[in-house]
Write a structure and sequence with these properties.
It is a single chain. The protein is α+β, with helices and mostly antiparallel strands. It has one domain: 2-Layer Sandwich (GMP Synthetase, Chain A, domain 3), CATH 3.30.300.90. The protein has a 3-stranded mixed beta sheet with strand order 1-2-3, covered by helices on one side. The protein is globular.
């Protein structure tokens, strides 16, 4: 991945802020807990994330539709090597 991995969670949070205007947002790098697993890049950061997010845009959407909005906003991060995103919507 060509991005500075130490700032990846911050860049993901900025993207979600811009696209989804959340009222609550947390992006947590959980990569260290997945070291040695499929998708790990050999470092303790940059591959596995948890996103906790609440936004009025989720009103009346199904869980799948909410997750799709998050995945769509982060698609270029996924294309560049983010392996897994656990999403908690509110």
């Amino acid at each position: 991945m060509t991005q500075d991995l130490s700032q990846l969670a911050n860049r993901m949070a900025e993207r979600l802020q811009d696209r989804l205007q959340p009222t609550q947002l947390e992006v947590i790098d959980e990569s260290a807990a997945h070291a040695g697993h499929v998708g790990s890049n050999g470092t303790p950061y940059g591959t596995h994330f948890r996103v906790r997010i609440a936004t009025p845009l989720f009103t009346d959407l199904t869980r799948v539709a909410r997750h799709r909005l998050v995945y769509d906003a982060l698609q270029d991060f996924i294309a560049q090597g983010v392996h897994a995103i656990a999403i908690e919507t509110r």
